[in-house]
Structure formats: C-alpha cells, structure tokens
C-alpha cells in the first residue's frame, strides 16, 4: 500500500483562509450566512471557517452541525455508523446555508444533506464548501468553494485528518494497488 | 416456554430485539446516541424523515396496549415506514390461527419488522427462531421482558441525572409479574446502577432471585432486597413504581389493595426520604392511589410524561437500527 501526503497543516490553513475569503466575497459579507458542518470532520472545519470569518469581519457567524444518517440512499445496502445529533438552532428560512464537508466524492452525501436541510426550512441558497474535491461524481453536484482539487482513482482512499478529531492536520491519499 | 426455559443469551441479537440480557454497555450507548438524533427530529416543526421509506412494520398485539403500540406506530411513521396494526381481536387469531402461522403469513407479506406483544413469556423468541427475513421486536412477552420500555427508562435516567452508573435505583411493587422490572434489572445492571428491590414477599420473584442474588459470578449479585420501603428509599436517586397488575392477581398475593397502598404506595411524604432531586418513574398505565399517589405522579419530581416522549425516540432508534442494520457492523 502506498501512502502520500497531499496537504500539510500549513497548506490546509491557507486553503481554509482562501475559502473563508471566497465565502465572504461571494455573499458580500457574513450577515446572512449559516455554516453547517457535516459530521464528523465537516463540523470542526465549519467552526474554523467561522473563526476566520469572524476575525476578518468582526461580527458573529451562525454555525450548525448536520448528520445525514436518516437521509442516506444506501440505508438498506450497508451497515450505517451511529448517528450524531443534528444541531441547527437558528431559523434557516431565507438564509444562505453553506454546507461544509471534508471530501467531495460521489456527491451522494451532499444530496442527502440538501434533503436534510430542506426538512428544516427553506434557505434562500445552499452553497457547498469542501476541503478536497476528489472527483468521480455520481450526481450532478459541484462545490462552490474547494480547498484543493485532487485527481484520484476509485481504488485510492482520501483521508482528511483534523486536529480536533485526529490530533493532526493533514490530508493523506493511500492506494491499495501498488 | 416458561421463563427458565428461555435461553439467557441467544444469537438472535443480530436481527431481533428480545431482551436486554443480549446488550452490553456499548450496544446500549450506541442506541442512546441514535436516540439523541431522534429526539432532535421530534423537536422539528415537520416531524418526518425518509429513513425507512418503503419499509413495512407490523405491530402484532395479543394484549391490550396504548402507549407501546402508539409509540411504535408513531416512531415508524416519523421514519416514513408503513405501519400496519394487527390486534388479536380483529385478526385470524379469532378463527384459531396459531401464532406461528400468523407470523409466517406476515413474513410472506414482506414485513421488515414485527413488533409483538403476547401474553406468553418467550413468544418473541419463538417467532425469532422461525423468521428468515423479518426482525422481531419484543414489546412485552408475558411476565418475561419488555426491552424497549427498559431502554427508554435507562435513557430517561441518563437524561435527568447525567449518568446511570452508581445511581441508587429503587424498584417498588409487583416485581413478580413485571416484565418491565425484569428487563430493567438487566439494563440497569449493565449500566452499573445500584439496584434495590422493594415489595411484599409474595410479589418478589423468589425463583428468579434466589439463584442469582448472592451468586458471586452472576450479574445480579449486587442487587439488594429491602421489604421496608421507607428504608429502601433512603437516599434513592430514582424511584421506579411498578403497576400492580390486577389482571394477573388471581393467586391472591395481597390481603387488600388498601394495605398494599399503605405499605408500598409512593406518597409525597415517603418521597422525602429519597434524595431531594430524585426522579419518580412509572412505566404506565398507572393505578393512581394504589402504587403511586396522584400528587407524586404529576408532581415536580415525576418524569413519567418525559418517559412517554422518550419512548417514541427510543423506538425510532431501535427500528432504524434493526431495519437499516446499524448494529451489524459491530457484530461482524
């Protein structure tokens, strides 16, 4: 098995800094934004983007967390991990929801996340920020803000490690085919 | 099947929920985690999620029930499953069809789960052994077990007290006939509670306890029995009153209801003996004025209504777990 580091902690920080600025630029400020992190690693990423935006703009930004366990399209096909609570305590009607996740791959999780958000209200827009886009979409979904585009093969595995969860900031790409 | 013949541990856990003796601490905590998510769904304006769309759940009740049946039905519907209710009165049971044949019929109709309540202990186990593709959930079998009630009791304790470990839980009353108490003994023991049983000797299940309390290798070794309720309540964190099951009182275990109420009824006066922040629980339905006084049942320390709300979330978590196979990952 070969393992390659494709993003270091410094590079991750730069990527998140750029994403934060792009979110602000696209939405002309932070007033109407809610950052919604997807469990597990999207949650700390959303919270970091919030801190960055708050430091630039000097105003508070709403965040929430989302578990898509109840909305997956493969519920009968494979065992599911234990869920974590969805916590979006603000009214999302008419707001701009920015979904934050670590890796964008098939797009199926994002489809589920959009369904979950629609059950909570009707945002004026839903946007998507991901740290890594590894391609191989199975649905017509694209990200609005991307940390890094990484061409991969389906045999490879992209693993984002976040300090709050894994004790280190890095992105690893590993392949079972040597 | 008598209670003693029911296997203590079965390999049926994979696909069915029969009793809590098959759950270890991490199994229970995993259900609690999913229940947290289900509680969030219950707070929404539109309480509907698509998780079990296209799945069929059949409730098969051979005994009367309001809260358990409605709670399962509501849980299934919030998860978008199709829920069909069958009660013994309106079913082919009236025409003499056996439980076995009824269950095979329901399986042939591609039911994903059957929730069964039956007057005979072990009925759920019997069905689970016959099923190939349908999950069985025991919603009360005779005097044996009622695992989903126990899970919601455990979750309620954790919600109100923060933890179950080392909390003093006093279970009072008709322990002989109580399937809720029996499942709770397993659940509370697994979660590390300090259990005290209180009630008249005639309503304490001697055959069940003799062999187990005092046997140092048995999980129930630390359970204590205290016939004097006032002593039992001293410092209690949880007071769990059980329903006096009048429909099962043919054997004449009690001289009179009045005497029972005086010695074992939970009154506000008695409750003062417990910890000031103790919670009062009752699995329902209550005989107010017998095992619990109305002012306690509806008082500050009562969490009885919270038990009912929690019951829906617990059953959502269980249905989700069984039908989508969340837990099988742990088993494999």
Structure report:
The complex is a heterodimer of chains A (178) and B (332). Chain A is α/β, with parallel strands linked by helices. In chain A, 29% of the residues lie in helices and 29% in strands. Chain A has a single domain (10-76, 83-152), classed as Rossmann fold. In chain A, the strands form two sheets. In chain A, strands 3-2-4-5-6 form a five-stranded parallel sheet. In chain A, strands 1-8-7 form a three-stranded antiparallel sheet. The longest helix of chain A has 18 residues, at 9-26. Chain B is of the alpha/beta class and 332 residues long. Chain B folds into two domains: 3-146 and 308-331, Rossmann fold (3-Layer(aba) Sandwich); 147-304, 3-Layer(aba) Sandwich (Rossmann fold). Chain B is globular, with a radius of gyration of 19 Å. The two termini of chain B are 30 Å apart. Classes of the chains: A alpha/beta (178), B alpha/beta (332).
- How would a textbook summarize the main sheet of chain B? 5 strands, parallel
- Report the strand count of chain A: 8
CATH level 1 name of chain A: Alpha Beta
Name the helix and strand elements of chain A from N-terminus to C-terminus, one letter apiece.
EHEHEEHEEEHE
Cα(first) to Cα(last) distance of chain A is 6 Å
CATH superfamily of the largest domain in chain B: Aspartate/ornithine carbamoyltransferase
Weakly predicted, low-confidence segments of chain A: none
Q: What name does CATH use for the topology of chain A?
A: Rossmann fold
Integer-rounded radius of gyration of chain A: 16 Å
Question: Level of helix content of chain B?
Answer: 25-40%
Quote the average pLDDT of chain B.
87
Number of helices of chain B: 13
Could you give the count of β-strands of chain B? Answer: 9
Unreliable parts of chain B: 327-332
The portion of residues forming beta strands of chain A comes to 25-35%
Total domain count of chain B: 2
In total, the number of domains of chain A comes to 1
What is the topology, as strand order, of the major beta sheet of chain B? 7-6-5-8-9
């Amino acid at each position: 098995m070969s393992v390659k580091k494709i993003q270091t902690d410094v590079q991750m920080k730069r990527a998140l800094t750029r994403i934060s600025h792009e979110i602000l630029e696209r939405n002309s400020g932070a007033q109407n934004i809610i950052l919604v992190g997807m469990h597990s690693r999207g949650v700390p990423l959303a919270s970091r983007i919030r801190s960055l935006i708050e430091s630039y703009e000097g105003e508070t930004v709403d965040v929430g967390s989302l578990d898509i366990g109840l909305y997956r399209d493969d519920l009968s096909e494979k065992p599911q991990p234990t869920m974590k609570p969805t916590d979006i305590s603000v009214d999302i009607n008419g707001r701009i929801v920015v979904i934050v996740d670590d890796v964008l791959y098939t797009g199926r999780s994002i489809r589920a996340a959009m369904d979950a958000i629609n059950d909570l209200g009707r945002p004026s827009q839903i946007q998507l920020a991901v740290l890594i886009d590894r391609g191989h979409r199975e649905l017509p979904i694209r990200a609005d803000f991307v940390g890094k585009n990484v061409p991969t093969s389906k045999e490879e595995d992209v693993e984002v490690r976040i300090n709050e969860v894994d004790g280190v900031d890095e992105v690893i790409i590993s392949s079972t085919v040597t | 099947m008598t209670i003693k013949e029911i296997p203590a541990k079965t390999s049926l856990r994979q696909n069915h929920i029969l009793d809590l003796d098959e759950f270890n601490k991490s199994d229970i905590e995993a259900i609690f985690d999913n229940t947290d998510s289900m509680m969030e769904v219950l707070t929404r304006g539109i309480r509907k999620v698509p998780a079990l769309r296209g799945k069929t759940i059949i409730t098969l009740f051979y005994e009367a029930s309001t809260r358990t049946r409605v709670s399962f039905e509501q849980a299934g519907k919030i998860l978008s499953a199709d829920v069909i209710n069958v009660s013994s009165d309106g079913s082919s049971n009236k025409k003499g069809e056996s439980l076995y044949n009824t269950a095979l019929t329901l399986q042939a109709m591609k039911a994903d789960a059957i929730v069964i309540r039956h007057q005979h202990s072990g009925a759920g186990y019997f069905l689970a052994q016959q099923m190939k593709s349908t999950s069985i959930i025991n919603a009360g079998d005779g005097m044996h077990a009622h695992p989903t009630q126990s899970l919601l009791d455990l979750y309620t304790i954790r919600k109100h007290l923060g933890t179950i470990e080392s909390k003093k839980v006093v279970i009072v009353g008709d322990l002989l006939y109580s399937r809720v108490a029996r499942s709770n003994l397993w659940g509370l023991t697994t979660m590390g509670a300090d259990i005290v049983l209180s009630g008249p000797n005639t309503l304490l299940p001697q055959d069940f306890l003799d062999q187990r309390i005092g046997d140092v290798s048995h999980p129930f070794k630390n359970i204590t029995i205290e016939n004097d309720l006032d002593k039992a309540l001293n410092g209690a964190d949880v007071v769990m009153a059980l329903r006096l099951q009048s429909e099962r009182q043919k054997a004449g275990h009690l001289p009179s209801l009045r005497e029972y109420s005086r010695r074992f009824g939970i009154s506000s006066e008695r409750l003062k003996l417990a910890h000031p922040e103790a919670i009062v629980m009752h699995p329902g339905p209550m005989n107010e004025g017998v095992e619990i006084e109305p002012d306690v049942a509806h008082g500050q320390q009562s969490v009885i209504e919270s038990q009912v709300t929690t019951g829906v979330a617990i059953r959502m978590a269980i249905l989700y777990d069984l039908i989508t196979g969340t837990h099988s990952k742990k088993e494999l």
